[in-house]
């Protein structure tokens, strides 16, 4: 069955030509295209400095190190997010602690963040999950009151806005991913944005073996450099980003209109002052719906509709964290097993939306 994939990178002739130009240029590693991509991406978000790296995970790792997160320090991350958020804190020697999520928006609950802060807390990592920013006004208030660094994880929120400000411009430093499923891609890739020249310089050193100049190493860093191929694709994708987000929002509006009519299924909510960029379209199964989340995923998948659990469970239950003290985020524990994603990307056509809605409409009936 051909089906409707849950995600599909949207690349065209322009990206092909850009990659060929790099091949012909002979300059493959970090060079002029990377510098241009950093400049343009930082401008798009409204930040002073961009530092391109080879993944969103590298971006988080480097940004945490640049802000001197290390042993004995805690960083608060949301209980519902991708693994890399907590893993990179641990890679720096720090300790991730977990804040619960908001029941309606699924992003970090500022009240829970407040409760999670201890004397050891040095930073907070709000995650703009599924394409919608966290409630940054309240989060920044808690951060300010407790002298915390705010490191935005904007890996899922290219083009999203909060009070008219772009995601990635809402804290001290922000990190993006350009993984193939994201709102824009470079194959693999990432970016750190900041207005602080010292943090920017530290990130530049950390991504390239601490090199200030060729073979002049002033600190121990990594090879997290972005390739020219990735930057060439990124420059084209950035020009298309706003149109991609528009199409995602159009698709989301139609899905929401249809799903609102189905008793027991709840569409995502766009928060006050937020512009959702719909990296993912998340549906919640309410009490009383005749099928469980996993049965719904199975039914829709069998009809060729790309569909999967959002995340299988709260993040701190992952085996890799099993030696960590038990945490409990009540709302996240209760909510996460109810969430699933359906296709919303720009290659989902109007007739695909009809197909998805018709399949969802039939879920209440016999198989
Ligand atoms: C919220 C979040 N943080 C971090 C990452 C890590 O990005 P990458 O896969 O580019 O390493 C991702 C990527 O999937 C993500 O969704």
Highest-level CATH class of the largest domain:
Alpha Beta
Find the count of extended strands (DSSP E, 2+ residues): 16
- Heterogens: pyridoxal-5'-phosphate
Q: CATH homologous superfamily name of the largest domain? A: Type I PLP-dependent aspartate aminotransferase-like (Major domain)
Secondary structural class: alpha/beta
In angstroms, what is the radius of gyration? 21 Å
> Uncertain regions: pLDDT < 50 for 5+ in a row?
none
CATH-assigned fold name of the largest domain: Aspartate Aminotransferase, domain 2
CATH architecture of the largest domain: 3-Layer(aba) Sandwich
How many domains? 2
Largest sheet: 7 strands, mixed
Strand order of the largest sheet: 1-9-8-5-4-2-3
Distance between the termini: 18 Å
């Amino acid at each position: 069955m051909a089906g409707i994939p849950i995600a599909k990178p949207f690349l065209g002739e322009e990206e092909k030509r850009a990659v060929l130009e790099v091949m012909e240029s002979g300059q493959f590693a970090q060079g002029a295209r990377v510098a241009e991509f950093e400049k343009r991406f930082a401008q798009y978000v409204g930040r002073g400095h961009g530092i391109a790296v080879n993944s969103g995970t590298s971006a988080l790792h480097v940004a945490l190190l640049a802000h001197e997160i290390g042993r004995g320090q805690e960083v608060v991350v949301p209980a519902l997010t991708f693994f890399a958020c907590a893993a990179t804190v641990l890679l720096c020697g720090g300790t991730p602690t977990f804040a619960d999520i908001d029941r309606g928006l699924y992003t970090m609950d500022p009240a829970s963040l407040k409760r999670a802060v201890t004397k050891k807390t040095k930073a907070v990592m709000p995650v703009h999950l599924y394409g919608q920013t966290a409630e940054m006004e309240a989060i920044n208030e808690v951060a300010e009151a407790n002298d915390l660094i705010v490191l935005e994880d904007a890996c899922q929120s290219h083009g999203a806005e909060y009070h008219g400000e772009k995601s990635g411009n809402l804290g001290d430093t922000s990190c993006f991913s350009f993984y193939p499923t994201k709102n824009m891609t470079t194959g693999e890739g990432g970016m750190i944005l900041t207005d602080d020249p010292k943090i920017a310089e530290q990130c530049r050193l950390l991504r390239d073996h601490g090199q200030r100049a060729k073979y002049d190493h002033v600190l121990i860093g990594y090879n997290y450099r972005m390739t020219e191929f990735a930057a060439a694709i990124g420059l084209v994708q950035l020009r298309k980003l706003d149109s991609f987000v528009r199409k995602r929002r159009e698709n989301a509006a139609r899905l929401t209109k249809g799903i609102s009519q189905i008793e027991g299924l709840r569409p995502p909510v766009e928060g006050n002052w937020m512009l959702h960029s719909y990296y993912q379209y998340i549906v919640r199964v309410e009490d009383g719906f005749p099928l469980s989340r996993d049965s719904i995923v199975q039914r829709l998948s069998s009809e060729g509709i790309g569909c999967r659990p959002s995340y299988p469970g709260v993040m701190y239950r992952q085996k890799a964290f099993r030696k960590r003290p038990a945490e409990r985020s009540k709302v996240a524990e209760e909510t996460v097993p109810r969430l699933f994603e359906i296709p919303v990307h720009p290659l989902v056509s109007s007739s695909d939306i009809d197909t998805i809605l018709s399949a969802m409409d039939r879920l209440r009936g016999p198989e």
